[in-house]
Specification:
This protein is of the alpha/beta class and 214 residues long. The chain has a single domain, classed as Metallo-dependent phosphatases (Purple Acid Phosphatase, chain A, domain 2, 4-Layer Sandwich), CATH 3.60.21. The protein has four helices and 13 strands. It has helices spanning 37-46, 103-112, 114-120, 147-156; strands spanning 2-7, 28-31, 51-53, 71-72, 76-80, 83-88, 91-92, 100-101, 125-128, 160-163, 177-180, 183-187, 190-195. Strands 5-6-9-10-12-11 form a six-stranded mixed beta sheet, covered by helices on one side. A five-stranded mixed beta sheet has the order 4-3-2-1-13, with helices on one face. Strands 7-8 form a two-stranded parallel sheet. Helix 2 packs parallel to helix 4 (147-156). The relative contact order is 0.18.
């Protein structure tokens, strides 16, 4: 299964200089936020894959002009082609703008999804805009990661955590990919193609969950 991950910067390769066939083989497109609505609408039109997105802290315009043909998974747990995907948009509260949350507010958002997570037996891909604390974030107020998202990863151990918000060009030695336990963390800034094996049936699959709280 091939997934196109996007965030923060519209890629000329997939927009300005797009050529037919570039989306061939893409099974799913996931946006981690801060992308133009028109960009996502273009991709869902030109490709054959569904487009899922969460809100970035600069996506206030989505309320009036949402990406046409795309689906918001912000605050939702969905299953697509066998993959359990949970979306949590926004970033740390730093200026009072839209889609900004305090640590307490984000923790509350996660708790609201608890019963769905238990019912689904866990999650395969966690999609956020902001990174988790200590996993690709920065120390300035605008780019500080969420502690509760880090605890979520430690507890539920998704196969992947995909985020944006922290541009790769912010630092010469910034890593796109890192690991935390059994979770692969990917900074989707610009674009990144993730290839994974088709998910196994979840009916008889057991998920090990630690007793730590979010």
């Amino acid at each position: 299964m091939k997934i196109l991950l996007l965030s923060d910067e519209e890629s000329p390769y997939y927009w300005d200089y797009f050529k037919r066939g570039r989306l061939d083989g893409i099974d799913l497109i996931i946006s981690c936020g801060d992308l133009k609505s028109e960009y996502l609408s273009f991709l869902v039109t030109m490709g054959r894959a569904p487009v899922l997105y969460v809100h970035g802290n600069h996506d206030g315009g989505y309320e009036q002009f949402p990406p046409e043909g795309c689906d918001s998974i912000d605050g939702k747990l969905v299953t697509v082609k066998g993959l359990r995907i949970l979306g949590l948009g926004g970033c740390r509260l730093y200026s009072g703008g839209e889609h900004q949350y305090s640590e307490k507010q984000m923790r509350r958002r996660i708790r609201r999804l608890e019963w769905k997570l238990r019912r689904a037996g866990g999650v395969d891909i966690l999609v956020t805009h902001a990174p988790a604390r200590g996993l690709g974030d920065d120390d300035d107020p605008a780019h500080l990661g969420f502690e509760c998202v880090r605890k979520f990863i430690d507890r539920w151990q998704p196969r992947y955590h995909v985020h944006g918000h922290v541009h790769l060009r912010y630092g010469a030695h910034r890593e796109r990919i890192m690991t935390s336990g059994n979770t692969t963390v990917i900074n989707a800034c610009g674009y990144y193609i993730l290839e994974i094996e088709d998910p196994e049936p979840k009916l008889q699959k057991k998920t090990n969950i630690s007793k730590s709280t979010v």
